[in-house]
Every structure is written in C-alpha cells, then in structure tokens.
Amino acid sequence: MIRIIIELIPPLVSGLKGKEIARAEIVNMGTGTKRRGNYRYALWGKQTRAWRTGEIENFPRGSFNVWILLFRVLKEALK
C-alpha cells in the first residue's frame, strides 16, 4: 500500500507536530501483469468515511513512477 499524508505545519513554531488534514491510500489489487497493474484508491479528509474511492486499471507501472500513479488517481477522483 502507498499512503500519502498531507499535514498542516504551524509556521515558525519548533517542536510542534503537524496536523493531518488529508490522506490518500493506493492499494495494489494483485491483478495485472509485471508491466501493468490495477490499483484501488481512497481519498480521505476529516470525515470518517473515504471522500472519494475508485480504481486505476492497466497502469503501466514499468514505464512510470509513483508520482504519475498519484497524478492519475487525483485526475480520476476529481473529475
């Protein structure tokens, strides 16, 4: 699983921990091939349930890195 956490960090204050304001989770579904994979995602905000969910199918993981996968997830989720 890939987890991306977005935190709000207080400015100019040392020693304070950031506050999580959003999270993305991307899970390999275990299907596809070595070069192409299928992924399930969930985007979270402050709510107790996922804000957006979906799937990215046939992603060319052999050609692109995790940042492109995250871009595709955001593009799909924010249509």
Strand content: over 45%
Low-confidence stretches: none
DSSP helix fraction: 10-25%
Helices and strands, in N-to-C order? EEEEH
| Number of distinct beta strands | 4
The number of helices is 1
Strand order of the largest sheet: 1-2-3-4
Compute the average pLDDT. 91
* Number of spatially distinct domains: 1
Entry keywords:
single chain, 79 residues, alpha+beta, 4-stranded antiparallel sheet, 1 helix, 47% strand, elongated
Walkthrough of the structure:
The mean pLDDT is 91. Strands 1-2-3-4 form a four-stranded antiparallel sheet, covered by helices on one side. The chain has one domain. The chain starts with a strand and ends with a helix. It is α+β, with helices and mostly antiparallel strands and 79 residues long. Helix content is 15%, strand content 47%. A hairpin with a 7-residue loop joins strand 3 and strand 4. The longest helix is centred in the last third of the chain and has 12 residues.
